[in-house]
Automatic annotation (TrEMBL):
GO terms for cellular component: cytosol. The keyword Chloroplast does not apply. SMART domains: DEXDc, HELICc. Residues 233-409 form the Helicase C-terminal domain. It comes from the Bacteria. This is DEAD/DEAH box helicase family protein. It comes from Winogradskyella luteola. Residues 32-183 form the Helicase ATP-binding domain. GO terms for molecular function: ATP binding; DNA binding; helicase activity; hydrolase activity.
């Protein structure tokens, strides 16, 4: 037994694992003892369940009982350092293999921690001896960058750990690189047993058909920034925070640095305490910002994807998804940042501004990870498209103006159903907008004393008119920019003309008496 192994065997730690974590370790070691030496095993556990704790204790036990070495791989330098500290806290002396590390003393270590790209370079340069590595642990194993290193470890047991056993590249499914999946505790079980906080979600109906999908299968930064950096969208984000989480600590995720900066200025203009963080920040700036975020009770931090992994701040009360994604993994990573529990925190808030809830279901839903692992394409094919999601939206008046139409029993008008009815009767599609104008005029007249009141209310309907026109344009499959602009302008003119021509008659029909002159 090496001196390092002897030290590990003798050193005791103050780390106490929960029963489910001990159970996972036993289950994995049982597989380790019965499977071939080159077996590839994947372990799934939700964010916040303690994956790093589990594999750190595994490393400790492995080195105590085997005369071989361990290598832990991560995909980011921050995770390397955090993993190294966790291993040290378990009594495991380890060496971080980075681009600057001197490896002359590698024989003195039984455990190495490395970032995937650095390790790839060191292995190709023959700078690291891996001949006696018996166990390889891969953190955040859903990233495909790790698979290029598997060729170096053909005689090692490989354990991948992830919260979502779904590959970041649909062309490279995880089942092709791992022979088996072991699933850990569900999110619901962790919530019920007070290991994770429960989510309260506020999902907004978002029109996302302007977003484009890139070669990576997710929405492009360019199309996302065009939508989410618009003045209307920035105001919606500020209003959503004020309505659901004012005074609470919030982390905002965006798809693009420019959007995050725009969000920063929008919140600052609203008098809210906010900072922006992206990957251009220096280590010192990052530390200062994260310290401020930790210490300030009502702090708001807006970012892109830099904080989706390797960031633990249990004091977060609210996660704002100011973006859409087609990645289940990214969805769970972002939401998971708010799920850490504290003595005075048993729930947290999700504000979804990207239809992510409708696309993937609620965070913590009972997903069949075994089926997703074995048949990832089956799962991907069942994710709802934006068109299918938006087809179920019930567009009604915005809350800000609904009070102006309080005398109307129903302000909703179903453009899609009206179009279907018209087609079934063989009518022209134009009747859909004619009936919509009549309904808009009706609610204006119901809440007015004279035609001038009604015309004033009609101006408040701009957003509702725009939504109806966009739905109508999809129904008739004609949605060019110029056509939509003309249709919206024409609708508003016809609504005003209808009110001027029919106000007195319709007022008397509604109220039973003529308007005062």
């Amino acid at each position: 037994m090496s001196q390092t192994n002897q030290a590990i065997q003798e050193k005791k730690t103050d780390k106490e694992l929960y029963d489910y974590q001990q159970g996972a370790i036993s289950q994995i070691f049982e597989k380790f003892d019965t499977a071939p030496d080159d077996y590839h095993l994947l372990y799934q556990l939700p964010t916040g369940g303690g994956k790093t704790v589990i594999f750190s204790e595994m490393v400790r036990q492995y080195l105590k009982n085997h005369n071989k070495k361990v290598l832990v791989m991560t995909h980011r330098i921050e995770l390397c350092n955090q993993t190294s500290k966790m291993l040290t806290s378990f009594g495991v002396t380890n060496k971080v293999v980075n681009s600057k590390a001197n490896l002359d003393d590698q024989a003195e270590y039984s455990c190495f921690v490395a970032m995937v790209e650095t390790l790839n370079n060191r292995l190709n340069d023959d700078k690291l001896d891996i001949s006696d590595v018996g166990l390889v642990i891969i953190d955040e194993a859903h990233y495909n960058s790790f698979t290029k290193l598997f060729k170096f470890f053909e005689k090692s047991f490989i354990l991948g750990v992830t919260a979502t056993p779904l590959s970041s590249n649909k062309e490279l499914p995880m089942k092709d690189n791992y022979q088996e999946l072991i699933t850990g505790e569900t999110i619901e079980n962790l919530i019920e047993n007070e290991f994770l906080a429960r989510a309260e979600t506020y999902a907004y109906d978002m029109g996302l058909t302007s977003l484009e999908v890139g070669s990576n299968g997710d929405y492009t930064v360019k199309s996302s920034e065009d939508l989410y950096s618009s003045p209307a969208m920035l105001q919606k984000t500020v209003d959503a925070y004020k309505k659901h989480s004012l005074g609470k600590k919030a982390l905002i995720f965006n798809n693009g640095i420019n959007t995050s900066i725009s969000v920063y200025y929008a919140f600052r203009e609203a008098g809210l305490p906010i900072m922006h963080l992206d990957n251009t920040a220096t280590k010192k700036q990052r530390r200062q910002i994260l310290d401020w975020f930790h210490e300030t009770p009502n702090a708001i931090l807006t970012s892109v994807s830099i904080l989706t992994t390797g960031f633990d701040e249990p004091t977060i009360d609210t996660i704002i998804l100011n973006r859409a994604t087609k990645s289940l993994t990214l969805y769970y990573q972002m939401v998971g940042r708010g799920s850490r529990i504290l003595n005075n925190k048993s729930k947290f808030t999700i504000i979804d501004l990207g239809n992510n809830l409708y696309r993937f279901g609620p965070w913590g839903a009972d997903l069949d990870w075994q089926l997703i692992f074995k048949s990832p394409n089956w799962y991907a094919d069942r994710i709802k498209s934006d068109e299918a999601i938006e087809a179920n939206f019930k567009h009604d008046l915005a809350d800000e103006i609904k009070g102006e139409f309080s005398k109307s029993e129903d302000t909703y008008f179903d453009i899609r159903q009206t179009y279907k009815d018209a087609v079934a009767k063989g009518e022209s599609s134009k009747v859909v907008l004619e009936r919509s104008i009549e309904q808009h005029a009706k609610i204006c007249i119901e809440n007015s004393e004279d035609v001038y009141d009604a015309l004033g209310l009609a101006k408040l309907l701009k957003d509702d008119i725009n939504q109806r026109i966009e739905i109508y344009a999809k129904c008739i499959s004609k949605s060019t920019y110029n056509f939509l602009k003309w249709l919206k302008d024409d609708y508003k003119k016809k609504l005003n003309s209808y009110l001027r021509a029919n106000f007195d008659e319709k007022f008397e029909e509604i109220h039973g008496y003529p308007p005062e002159k």
